[in-house]
Design goal:
By secondary structure, the protein is an alpha+beta fold. The protein is 17% helix and 20% strand. A 3-stranded antiparallel β-sheet has the order 4-6-5, with no helix packed on it. A 3-stranded antiparallel β-sheet has the order 10-11-12, with helices on one face. The longest helix has 10 residues. The radius of gyration is 18 Å and the shape is globular.
Amino acid sequence: MDTFDDTQRPFPLFKAPIAHAALDGPGECVRCGKHVGTRFQDACYDCFRTGELDTVMDTEFGMVTRDDATAGRTHGIPLNDPSALNGYTLTQHPIDPRFPDDRWYHVHIDPGHLAELLRTPKYHTWQGETWLFCCQRPMVFRGSLPADIFTDDPDLLPSEIEKFLDAPDWKQTVEDGHGSHTYYVFTCSVCGALRHHDDCD
C-alpha cells in the first residue's frame, strides 16, 4: 500500500499509507489553478507544501492556525494544573470575566515545527484529528489501526502496536468488517516514543 514517500510527495510528519490521509479528490488547485488528481485541502501538493494556505490542525494542545504557528504557540487548552505540562512554556489567556474559574493556556512550540504541521495532511478519524506531541514538537503520524486487530489488554497494547509497525500489514487496516474503534498511532522523531489516541463512531 503506497505512502506519500512512494509517490515522491513526502511529508516529514506523515509516514502512513496514503489511504489513511484525509484528502480531496481531483480538481483545480485553489492557489495555482492546476488540475490534479489528488488535492490537499483543495490545493495541489506543491502549493500545499508552501505553507501559505489558510489551514488549521487540531492537536492535543489546542488547534493551530497560521497565525498561531507564526507566533510559535497553539491556540490553547484549559488546564486546572499547568504543572501537568511542565516540560513546555505556557502563556495564560486573559481571564474571561464571564467564566472567572476557567484557565486557558497557549502552549509554546517552535514556529518551524508548527509550520511543518500545517503543511501536513490530516488523517481520517471518526471524531476529528488530535495531533500528538513529544520532545516539544509534533510527532510523526504512523497510521490508523483498527482496535480489533489487537488485544483487549491495555498493558500489552503498546508492544502489539510496535510489533505491527515493525512489519505492517496495511491491507488489514482497510479491510471491511472492523469495528469503528480505531487507534491513531504516532512516533517521536527525537526519542522514538510511541503514543496513540483513539476514537469511534
